[in-house]
Amino acid sequence: MQDNRPLVPPPSIAHLFGPGGEVPDWKEQEVFFAWQSARKRTEQGALDAAEELMFLTRVLAKQFVSRRDSIRHRAMLESALEVVPLPRQRSVLASDLCMAACRENDLQGAASWLSLADPVSDDLFTDSMYRMAKACLSTKQGNYTQVLQVLGHTHTDRSYAPRAKCLGTLGFARKVRMASR
């Protein structure tokens, strides 16, 4: 039921994004201010703000990764993790932090972040993020058998959230399968 559901911003912040879901350059500052507001309101207990915060964090974090700004990327994720109330939200952020630590070759940090994530979530996106993080860490550790167990041996072994597909989960799985042959 959760497969093929597109990632759409909460209605309250939809005006910040272009037709393809991108942040126009001239709106980056506005998006950051919206993130700060959502974080503050989440800290005060507003659940709708937590969903805004999650969406905005994912969008801004992706931009920081593409700019190779690992410090701001990690700071944003950690700051959001401090205030989100729901386990699935914490798991997604912890998984993203695990992958960030892997990019920095901090395997101990990656394992610590992964330990905060839910390995058996019934939410497809949360589950996909966990599996991607676990696969990243296992790859860095050279444990390709574990990678294939987590991601599957073929593209039909597991379901992935469309949002995880766009993060490169399937391409990553293909590369690991080819490397392990």
Write up what this structure looks like.
The chain has 181 residues and is mainly alpha-helical. The chain has helices at residues 28-43, 47-66, 70-81, 87-103, 107-114, 124-140, 144-151, 162-166, 169-179.
Features:
181 residues, mainly alpha, 9 helices
What is the helix tally? Answer: 9
Beta content comes to under 5%
Low-confidence stretches: 165-170
Terminus-to-terminus distance: 33 Å
Tell me the series of helices and strands, N- to C-terminal: HHHHHHHHH
Helical fraction equals 55-70%
Largest sheet at a glance?
none
Compute the CA-based radius of gyration.
Answer: 16 Å
Q: Which geometry do the CA atoms define?
A: globular
Backbone structural class: mainly alpha
Mean pLDDT: 84
- The total count of strands amounts to 0
Task: Give the SSE layout.
Layout: H1 28-43, H2 47-66, H3 70-81, H4 87-103, H5 107-114, H6 124-140, H7 144-151, H8 162-166, H9 169-179
Helix pairs in contact: 1-2, 2-3, 3-4, 4-5, 4-6, 5-6, 6-7, 7-9
